[in-house]
Every structure is written in structure tokens, then in C-alpha cells.
Amino acid sequence: MADYHTVYKGPEGQTTQWDDIQRKMGNLPAKEPVKKADPFTPEREDTKNKNWIDGKAVDELEELEDEFDDDRSLEQYRQERIEQLKAAQKQARFGTMEHITRGDFVQQVTNAGEDVYVVVHLYKDKVANSAMLGECLTELAKKYPQTKFVKIISTECIPSYPDKNVPTVLIYKDTKCLQHLIGLGPFGGPRTTPEQVAISLNRFGPLCRQEGEEDTPLSMQDIRELIKTLLIRQSEKVNDNESDDGPASPRG
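Request: output the structure for the sequence above.
Response:
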């Protein structure tokens, strides 16, 4: 008959006097350290308020549609915040004058996107008027980020393109070239300014207008700039005609 006996164990880490004696004599292994459980720390729950919503991106807010079923005010604020973020993304779509190559043209210009106006500056470094118009367009690119502004070397865009036609501006929208403007004449001549360039571009669509200003009439400042441009052109024509006629011969 087998010899059965019962071994009693106390709480974890507690030993008997007999075990302590046996350990001193080397008959039992050293006492193992008592394992303590990590202290309980409750998970922090985000407080769902306006500040919490402001920290989310558009896609995150759209995924949280069911989070605010019981709070209409927060749900309304969530919707407003989504619209604000989408409007900001649309407004800040571009914002710089980007240099492109011939290989980039189709993707960056022709297929720029639906309802996107693209202003293409064909330039040459050695042509002085290119630098002047380029500075104006670069400033407009920063001011009107809803319109895409790019520049490309004229002969890289169109092989053998004559320097006499530089600078040239092409206006694209929805894969089509709406207009091409040659030289500084369409922009007010060699004394053109960013404001005059913007007014000229706006003749072909809302290229240089802030979001929601498509139907806004010309301001008094715009009208003054137009009058100034016309006067400059008229003065230049008079000077050119006088130069062509040559100096008047003195009377005998």
C-alpha cells in the first residue's frame, strides 16, 4: 500500500522553521524572492470636449461619428471642425512657385486636378523680363495658394521656342490650355507689379482671388491699377512712335 502524506504550504513567501533549518544546512535551495504584482493603474480616458476634438485630423474625426450620439453639441462642433479643416486644406493646396521639367508637365499641369487653375511660366535666365515676371508670379503663388503656379525653361517645354516670346504664361484648367500670354505687354509692360499681373490673370478666371471671392467686383484699388496700366501703355506707344520718326529736322 502506497504511503500517502499531505504537505501543507502557507501563503506565498512564508516558510516554516523546519524549512529555514534545512536551508541553513544546505538541504534546500535558497528561498525565491516573492513576486509582487504591479500596482493597478486605471486607464486614462480622454475627455471628449472641444479641446479633444481640436487635436484630431479630418480622417480621425470622420471615424468618430458614433462617439457623440448622446451629445448633440459636440457632434455639431465635430461637423464644424471637419468643415474648417477641409477648407484649410483646400486653401493651402499649393502656395509656392514650383520648378518642373518636361517630363513633369503632363502630371503637374495637364492632369493637375479637377477645377484647378495652373499658371505656367515659360522663362529663360538670360532674358531680363523673365526675372521680373517670375518675381511677380512667385509673390502671387504665396498669396493665392488655391491656384497652382509652376515654371519651366521655355526651350525645355517647347524645343526651339524663340527668346523673343519669353516670358510666356500659359493658363491651364481641366487638361486644357485656356490662354497663352506672350511678353510683359498683357501684364502692363516692363513696369508691371504683382497687383497688375493678378488683375490680368483674373480676366481668364478666379486665379488670383481668395476663397469665396469669385463674384466679388473689382475694388477701387484694382480700378486704379487698371487705369495706371493703360496710361503706361499709352505713354510707351507715344515714345515708341517718336523714336521711329526720328528727331525733327531743324528749320533753316
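The chain has a mean pLDDT of 77.
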